[in-house]
Amino acid sequence: MARYFMELAYNGKNYHGWQIQPGAVTIQETLNEALSTLLREEIQVTGAGRTDAGVHASFYVAHFDTRTPLTDPAQTAYKLNRMTGPDIAIRRIYAVAPDAHARFSALSRTYQYFIDKEKDPFTCDYAWKVHPLPDIDRMNEACRLLFEYTDFTSFSKLHTDVKTNNCTIMQAQWQDTGRQLVFTIQADRFLRNMVRAIVGTLVEIGQGKLTPADFRRIIESRNRCNAGSSVPAKGLFLCHVEYDKKIF
Q1: 159-212 tens-digit pLDDT
Q2: Is 72 a residue of the active site?
Q3: CB-based contacts of 42: which residues, under 8 Å, 6+ apart?
């Protein structure tokens, strides 16, 4: 068996997330079917992580195994792009070590969340318009508290099957690009719904509904009911996955 990594991007608007689910169109299922048809064997694609319905990825990594090594991975990517439609773009396919794993070999993942400062018909499908606009300095003050903790149960979807809610956050900050407020967060792993719940809580701080001290109490409570609402999925993008170079 030969193992390959596949770098891709996708618009999640018309998909029920990454992971295969009964009766729903997903990115994973779409790729499984396309690769199985193209390579004429049953292919199961494994992704770097699960993205929820409506969430996008500007950079995503998946791996798959095939009994017959690819003679021209670039040509395989080209043909796959013709089969997957406009919502999924295969950037490149390349061979990796047999034990390289798109999910478990990842060192970190980075997400970004976009908030439009003004109504914009060209970004409205990929950003959230919120009123009143939150204060970025207050949100960044609260962001610094995230580095003091590892247990983020307060921002996790309830009743998930993970063994631990501990994560190490390496980066968390808001930037004002002029037209948008952009939140960037990097961690070794993320819980279900974690980024959207953190953003929702930070926005409430930026709007003056909560204080940074409240944010600390929310984290320490380990209770999802105390945190803010999850923000809309359309503004969230997985934008980077980092790996140790030894697996390539």
Answers
A1: 666 778 899 999 999 999 999 999 999 999 999 999 999 999 999 999 999 999
A2: no
A3: 36
- The catalytically annotated residue of 52, 116, 151, 188 is 52
Task: Name the pTM for this structure.
Answer: 0.94
Q: Tens of pLDDT along 97-134?
A: 999 999 999 999 999 999 999 999 999 999 999 999 99
